[in-house]
Each structure stands twice: as structure tokens, then as C-alpha cells.
Amino acid sequence: MAEIIPFDQRQGQLWFDGKMINWTDAKVHVLTHGLHYASCVFEGERMYNGRIYKLEEHTARLFKSAEILGMKIPFSEAEISAACIAACDVQGFRDAYIRPVVWRGSEMMAVAAQQTKIHVAVAAWQWGSYFDPKEKMKGIRLDVSEWKRPAPDTAPTAAKAAGLYMICTMSKHAAEAKGYADALMFDYRGYVAEATGANIFFVRDDKLYTPIADCFLNGITRKSVIELAKARQIPVYEKHIERSELDGFTECFIVGSAAEVTPVSEIGPWKFRPGKITETLMNDYHADVNAPVSAVHLAKAS
């Protein structure tokens, strides 16, 4: 196994509160509000061939997440998008994973923290496939999580907020301990929701089905895959999916900026076989994220 370099010991630079600093100098105090009270939001983005996929959409969602948590980002959306590009450029990356993060600082240490400073950082690093490439091509295995996605009146489910990922980490750790790659989470009503960090799709009779994103993030990759499927004339149905319906699906895959499009072969007792639609959308997504910049500009202009 390759040596893992801790993230606080890596070399290079990152963007921190408006300027580039040495990676190892990016420090926050132990009494930071974001650490103690989860007043923190973030994004996960990928750069392919020098272009960050759906950069403007990611930046807009970061600002919306911060707004939901009552945090005003002290930079414009244009400045944060430029910072994401700069964080890749300063590292010399053309293919990278990018993490913008916003959090409340250490000026106050209590539930109420109106006077805390809002900090923003953007870091980029090289990160290949989220799952083992050999396992990915034959379909990963998912456990069934004991935790449920919360109701939207009990948590800020429309925000990409750090606190919402606590049960995701717990679920993924439990799944990995049993030999699975990830876990499927149901929602507070018992409907299929998502994996721990990715949205989920199913196939039945050459039609695509995905849960309604009403208590978890309507992912940017999720929306991209829906667009790609419709361009292929593949019918897409967004619906509440009951546990009992899982017996009738033949294919399954998960999607996200980190996961990209990853086939699933098993969810607990349910079995699937990666097939034509999964492979088609994997290839179409790969082509979309790797489209030349000129082609992207032409598509937007049209």
C-alpha cells in the first residue's frame, strides 16, 4: 500500500482568506467554532484537462449553503471561482480535486457566535478514482446503513454542511469494516435516499429511476447525469423509491464529483449487474467532463 501523506504535512500552496500561503502554514485554532459546532460548509469539485467541471454551479451552491447557515462569505462568487482555478494553477495541476471550505472562526466559543469571522480556504490535490478502479468496473458493493437522512425540518438538508456528514462517516466506516465499499442510506420516511457521499440511480426496463432529492442534496453530478440520459432519450423518473422496489431493478450506479459514475453490483441482499445504460452514462459523463474548453464555450453560446 502506498504511503499516505497526512494533509497537514503536504507541500505546495493553497488559497486562504484571499491570498496564497504555504500549505503547511494553513492553520486554525483548536477553539474554532467550525470544529466545535459544525458551522462549516464546503464543496467538492474536479478539474479535468485544466477545466473545473461545473465550476460556477459549485461556487453558487457554496454561497447558498453558507447563506442557509447564516454565514456571509466575505468574497464574491467570481473571486471564489478564480481562487479555485488559482489553487490548481499554483500546484501545477491540470487534473485535480478541489475543496473550497467556509467556516466560523475562533472569536467566540458558544452556540451563539454572531461576532466570529468567516474564513474561506481553497485547496487542490491530485486524487484518482474514489473507489478501487478494478472493483469499480465490476460494480462496488454497498452495505445498508443503520442511519437515516434527516427530515428537512430537523437539519439544513439543502446545504452541503459539514455536520450532515457525521452519519455518513459512521456509515461508511461500518460498511468498510464488513468488507463493503460504501453504504446506502434510507431517509427518515424509509425511502431510498443516497450513498454516504453520492446520489444513486437504478435501471428497470431501460428506464432510469432516482430518488426525489427532497431531504438530501440534489447533486450537481446528479443533474448532469439526468441531462446526459435525456440527451440519449433514456426516460428518467424522479420518485420516492420504497425498499420493496429494489427487487425489481436490474442496474444500479452512484454519482458524485468524487465518485463520478460508479456501477453498483450489490446493496445488502439486493444484486445488480452493470449493464448497457450504466456503461453508456459512464462513457458520456467521462466525455462531458473531459470536453475541450472550446467545445464547452460553444455549447454555452448555443
Short description:
The chain is of the alpha+beta class. It is 28% helix and 28% strand. The chain has two domains: 10-125, D-amino Acid Aminotransferase, Chain A, domain 1, CATH 3.30.470.10; 133-289, D-amino Acid Aminotransferase, Chain A, domain 2 (Alpha-Beta Barrel), CATH 3.20.10.10.
Please give a handful of descriptors for the protein shown:
302 residues, alpha+beta, D-amino Acid Aminotransferase, Chain A, domain 1, D-amino Acid Aminotransferase, Chain A, domain 2, 2 domains, nine-stranded mixed sheet, seven-stranded antiparallel sheet, 28% helix, globular, disordered C terminus
How would you describe the overall organization of this protein?
With 302 residues, this protein is of the alpha+beta class. The chain has two domains: 10-125, D-amino Acid Aminotransferase, Chain A, domain 1, CATH 3.30.470; 133-289, D-amino Acid Aminotransferase, subunit A, domain 2 (D-amino Acid Aminotransferase, Chain A, domain 2, Alpha-Beta Barrel). It has eight helices and 16 strands. The strands form two sheets. Strands 8, 9, 10, 11, 12, 13, 14, 15 and 16 form a nine-stranded mixed beta sheet that branches. Strand 14 (251-256) and strand 15 form a beta hairpin. Helix 2 (55-68) packs across helix 3 (77-89). 38% of the residues are buried. The model is unreliable at 295-302 (pLDDT under 50).
